[in-house]
Amino acid sequence: MNTRRYVLPLMLSLALVGCSEQGNQKAGANQAAGGGQQRPPSKVSVVTMKQAEQPVTRVLPGRAVAFQTAEIRPRVNGMIEQIKFKEGSTVKAGDVLYKIDDDTYAASLEEAKAALAKAEASVPSAQANLNRYERLVNSGATQIEYENARVTLLQAQADVAQAKAALQSAQINLGYTEIKAPFDGVTTISTVSIGNIVTANQTTALTTLRRIDPIYVDLTDSSANLLELRSAIAAGRLKGSPTEADITLTLEDGTKYDKTGKLDMAEMAVSETTGTYQIRAVFDNPNNLILPGTYLRATVIVGYENGFLIPQRAANRNANGSLTAKFVTAENKVETRTFDNTQLSGTNWLVTSNIKDGDKLIVDGFQWIAEGAVVAPVDAKLDENGFVVEQAAAQPPAASPAKP
Asked: 384 CB contacts (<8 Å, ≥6 apart)?
């Protein structure tokens, strides 16, 4: 009797516990199912694709180079008497930069003037003597005397020419005592001071003059890109001429330079060590914002091609290096597409295949959605860097057919 009295309550307790656990499991399942039905599709920002003629660009590294450069050196010997420019200032062509003591050169000029006057004074008497012998050559004067008179005149005339040349040289040397700017430009620090002795064509420059408005930018591109560009032009895929395209600059701090440049020349040789060739562009530089030696990045338009633009921020690369991007299908499901042939177009990728007008590209929110997931696309507008700046209302999902 005692055993039965304990067994019966134990069996009832186990039955009650089992019923309670089963009820809890059903309630949890019902709550989970209810939560899944209430969760809405994720919102994603999309833009509608449209084919158009787009620029094909290259981003190339470069260095600024002065448009003109001249190392200023003396052309005569002497002592620096005056320095007539402010170091680092802008000077005009013909402005006097240095004045060399000219006393010696002024004296040489006066000496040359006197020598010329002396030489010129002997010409009339030699001419008169020749004329006299010319009249007497047939009446007593010998032919030798006549020839000697003619030679004397020629020597006097040669002395005049020599004196004129010496005078001109003296004038030039005196002019060289004023060292002038050969063109408009900006000076550097002077390497000499007043009182220093300088020599003609010395190794050390007195200062350097640079013209930096306009300014050159030397760019570097690979020979592989050059071959690819030529192939695209030959195949007719690219329109336009790279030599006529505008070139834009990005400064070292990431800001855009407000002037556009033009291609000036392209080196017709490839470096044997780097496999690159050089391109030179020219830019207006009215405020001297770009200085020689500055590192820059240039965006060069190399042609135009019909295609679709995919912002770089909206694309990825797969394990094979191919470009990938996510789209929204007509059923509002996520679809990943791969593009093998791509070109750079500013801050976008230019693609020509596996895409058509009206396709909706996901430009934001694609990092957290899986392939085939149902989403709520929201039309968006992008800025020049591919960031979303404006969004429309979310598009409602397609209504499911009513049950009969």
From this structure: 346, 347
pLDDT of residue 1: 45
φ and ψ of 275, to 5 deg:
70, 25
CATH 1.10.287 fits 102-176, yes or no: yes
Place of tokens 């002065």: 66
Same fold flag, 42-52+308-394 and 102-176: no
Q: How far is CA 219 from the centre of its chain?
A: 6
Say whether pLDDT at 90 is over 90: yes
Q: Which CATH superfamily is domain 57-66+211-306 in?
A: Efflux pump adaptor protein, beta barrel domain (2.40.30.170)
pLDDT score of 237: 64
Question: Of 206, 212, 167, nearest to 185 (Cα)?
Answer: 212
CA distance 343 to 59: 12
- The residues spanned by each domain of the chain are 42-52+308-394, 57-66+211-306, 74-100+179-204, 102-176
Write down the pLDDT at residue 243. Answer: 60
pLDDT at 298: 92
- Of 105-119, 264-278, 315-329, the one with minimum mean pLDDT is 264-278
Look at residues 223, 240, 241, 190 and name the one whose alpha carbon lies nearest to residue 87: 190
Indicate the helix (H) or strand (E) that contains 371: none
Per CATH, the number for 74-100+179-204 is: 2.40.50.100
Q: Check whether the bond before 214 is cis (ω within 30° of 0).
A: yes
Q: How far apart are CA 78 and CA 159, in angstroms?
A: 30
What is the fold of 42-52+308-394? 2.40.420
Which positions ≥6 away from 20 have C-beta within 8 Å? none
Predicted structure pTM score: 0.69
Which pLDDT does position 93 carry in this prediction?
Answer: 96
- SS3 letters for 171-182? HHHHHHCEEECC
